[in-house]
């Protein structure tokens, strides 16, 4: 139980660090190679990075940035406002959640949504978690229909 609990905590830390990297990328518009060489290296130097699941951090950063356009196409139909009006934090959280839902079927959809909601509660606006939950729930109904039934 303790080992499983620690693993979940390390995955959550990975998501938090990935969120920081993706957020920076959204704000700066730097190309992916700059994000990997400079920003990701800066995150790795942070003291509490050792608590993260480094492999999962890499999967999230590389996966989200390399699949950005496809992820946006998948979530756009479920947004109730223009993408440009979404805060960069919520945008980054939606990218992480949608990446997990679409590309990592081994993670139960409820876990992916819950982890995204927790990120939004910690880092997003007051009611941002409700928006994140609604969008990812609709996406899950589309891409994980069999699992949900």
Automatic annotation (TrEMBL):
Swiss-Prot/TrEMBL keywords: RNA-binding, Transcription, Transcription antitermination, Transcription regulation
Family: Belongs to the NusB family.
Chain's role: Involved in transcription antitermination. Required for transcription of ribosomal RNA (rRNA) genes. Binds specifically to the boxA antiterminator sequence of the ribosomal RNA (rrn) operons.
A molecular function (GO) term: RNA binding
Signal peptide: none
Domain NusB/RsmB/TIM44, chain residue ranges per copy: 13-140
Biological process terms in GO annotation: DNA-templated transcription termination; transcription antitermination
One Gene Ontology CC term in the entry: cytosol
Organism (species): Candidatus Kinetoplastidibacterium desouzai TCC079E
Gene3D superfamilies on file: NusB-like
Keyword RNA-binding assigned: yes
Name this polypeptide is given: Transcription antitermination protein NusB
């Amino acid at each position: 139980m303790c080992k499983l609990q620690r693993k979940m905590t390390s995955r959550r830390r990975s998501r938090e660090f990935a969120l920081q990297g993706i957020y920076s990328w959204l704000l700066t518009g730097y190309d992916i190679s700059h994000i990997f060489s400079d920003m990701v290296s800066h995150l790795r130097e942070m003291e509490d990075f050792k608590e993260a699941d480094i492999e999962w951090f890499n999967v999230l950063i590389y996966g989200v940035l390399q699949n950005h356009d496809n992820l946006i196409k998948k979530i756009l139909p479920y947004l109730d406002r223009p993408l440009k009006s979404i805060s960069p934090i919520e945008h980054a959280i939606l990218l992480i959640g949608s990446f997990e839902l679409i590309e990592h079927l081994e993670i139960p959809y409820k876990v992916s949504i819950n982890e995204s909601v927790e990120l939004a509660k910690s880092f997003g606006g007051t009611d941002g978690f409700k928006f994140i939950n609604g969008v990812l729930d609709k996406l899950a109904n589309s891409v994980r229909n069999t699992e949900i039934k």
